[in-house]
Specification:
547 residues, three-stranded antiparallel β-sheet, TIM Barrel, alpha/beta, globular, eight-stranded parallel β-sheet, 40% helix
Length: 547
């Protein structure tokens, strides 16, 4: 390996220089040789250690990054703000993830760095009846409606969709092994199931996207036999149909050809070296009713496992059309994962990342209310995915309507991601998002799987401690009344007061004014509006005004 050769040459030259300098009396040469020999020893240690991917891949010089990050907050915050796809995590959150992944408590001295008087600041209220954190196993949420014969009890925090191909095999193994240790789920992403997903036995959510990778015909259509072969594996616990993702809603997935090696090509069922672009929509269905029929079909083909879909909410009317299709068909998905537009991606247009799609807060509350309004919330579980990183994130999302959460970037932090923003170039410096074996060696699976496990466990425990401090015994007791937002410097309101919340079956009986037009225009037989209303007349999510 080139790096080992360079380290060896520098160290060897240093030892030779020391020897020559001492024997000849050239002390300056001896000093220079001593420095070189010392650098060689540091380089050898860096190459052999397993904890830090950056110095394992870049011996000696990698320490410069750690030195710069000690200059706080300016330099460290610079890395966060300039090297992030999607809305960035603040430094405090990123450091908290790193600390928990390393087994630390994540306690910060001297109090909050946040402006609690700023408009938009959110908090939950503690109680004089605070409870001790429960000493019981992590809580679970059951996925499985009336038509599901193999329900799955999912954890509160899970690994969100990240594909093999986008991530290295070592990264996939670390995530899945960590999931196996902690008993939480690992979404495969749209890149299908590879040997890295099955090496350590962690629970899998098999994602089926518009490219049908791993279950496609040579022409790119859905192959039921190939799907069944993978979906019926014992390790696969649920099926997730990807309709859209928050970082690039309205676009299909993209994997540059430089990352499609033989192993990635085999897993996906595509030619080696070909840039893989998924269609923006699924070829297998084109109407809301056909989508629900596809859900039912995958449930049958998988042997009765929970089947759901993931989307970043766009048109309210289109999602309400899906709800009408559920009512009309008498069938529904077992779960829906709501992705927020603030989600990140390794390859996507900046305009889409920044300006297309509904943020998670609005999208999550809308989906929850829509399902309540058609009387199906009790059988359809909701997952939240998009900048979920901490215990308070879990608590907030459940207050807003979620049952469970999934994290992507935070899990990447746990396995060593430094947000170098080179995911699409195959040159990730820490081995997370690359298929280059020399770079991927920097990620040591046996070390990083522990970090994934520790991060998830400590984050869920933090969420449990928070609800205990609120005087609650269970996450089921969370509600919009428990979450506060500052709306101006003098006023805070609860989410219950800020937004409109529907009553069960209210859309079926008497849709409220703010929902009436979208509900009337929703059509179970088409994603097109029932009449030709203009785009400008569609209403934003959760608005409270009149038609």
């Amino acid at each position: 390996m080139k790096r080992a050769l360079v380290v060896g040459v520098v160290g060897g030259a240093g030892v030779a220089a020391v020897t020559v300098g001492v024997t000849s009396g050239h002390w300056l040469l001896a000093v220079i040789g001593l420095v070189a020999a010392g650098l060689g020893l540091v380089g050898v240690f860096d190459l052999l250690q397993t904890q830090h991917s950056i110095t394992r891949n870049y011996p000696v010089v990698g320490h410069l990054r750690f030195l710069l990050e000690r200059i706080r907050p300016e330099i460290q915050q610079y890395f966060v703000e300039t090297n992030t796809a999607g809305t960035p995590f603040d430094r405090e959150t990123r450091d908290l993830v790193y600390d928990r992944a390393k087994g630390n408590h994540g306690d910060e001295p001297f109090g909050t760095e946040r402006d609690v008087n700023a408009v938009g600041y959110e908090f939950v209220a503690h109680s004089m009846r605070a409870r001790p954190k429960p000493d019981t196993p992590q809580p679970r949420v059951r996925l499985g409606g009336p038509r599901c014969t193999k329900p799955y009890d999912i954890a509160l925090l899970n690994v969100s969709a990240m594909s093999f191909g986008s991530l290295s095999g070592q990264a996939i193994e670390a995530l899945n092994w960590g999931a196996a240790l902690g008993g939480f789920a690992h979404d495969t992403g749209e890149g299908s199931i590879s040997r890295h997903h099955t090496a350590h036995g962690g629970d899998l959510i098999m994602e089926v996207a518009s490219g049908y990778f791993g279950c496609r015909t040579p022409e790119g259509r859905f192959d039921p036999d190939a799907f069944t072969a993978r979906a019926t594996l014992d390790q696969v616990k649920a099926i997730n149909i990807k309709l859209s993702q928050g970082a690039k809603p309205g676009l299909g997935g993209l994997l540059p050809g430089s990352k499609v090696n033989a192993e990635v090509a085999e897993a996906r069922g595509v030619p080696v070296g070909t840039t893989v672009v998924s269609p923006p929509v699924h070829p297998e269905f084109s109407t809301p009713l056909e989508l629900i029929a596809f859900v039912d079909r995958l449930r049958d083909l998988s042997g009765g496992k929970p089947v759901g879909f993931k989307l970043c909410v766009g048109s309210r009317r289109e999602f309400l059309a899906i709800c009408k299709a559920m009512v009309a068909s008498g069938s529904a998905p077992d779960f829906i994962i709501v992705d927020g537009s603030e989600g990140g991606t390794g390859a996507g247009p900046v305009e889409f990342e920044d300006h297309v799609g509904m943020p998670l807060t609005e999208g999550l509350m809308f989906v929850h209310n829509a399902l309540v309004g058609v009387g199906l919330r009790g059988q359809v579980r909701i997952g939240a995915s998009g900048k979920v990183a901490t215990g308070i994130d879990i608590v907030k999302r459940i207050c807003q309507g979620a049952d469970f959460t999934l994290a992507a970037r935070a899990m990447m932090f746990a396995i060593g991601c430094i947000q170098a923003q080179t995911c699409h170039t195959n040159t990730c410096p820490v081995g997370v998002a690359t298929q280059d074996p020399q770079r991927a060696r920097g990620l040591v699976v046996t070390d990083k799987k522990e970090r994934v496990f520790q991060y998830q466990e400590k984050t869920v425990n933090s969420a449990r401690q928070i609800i205990a401090s609120m005087g609650l015994d269970d996450f089921d007791q969370l509600s919009p009344r428990k979450l506060f937002r500052r709306v101006d410097p003098q006023v805070t309101q609860t989410y219950q007061e800020l937004f409109e919340w529907l009553e069960p079956e209210q859309l079926l009986t008497a849709p409220p004014t703010g929902w009436g037009r979208d509900w009337r225009e929703a059509d179970a037989d088409s994603f097109e509006p029932a009449s030709h209303l203009g785009r400008a007349e569609e209403r934003p999510a959760m608005s409270r005004g009149d038609d």
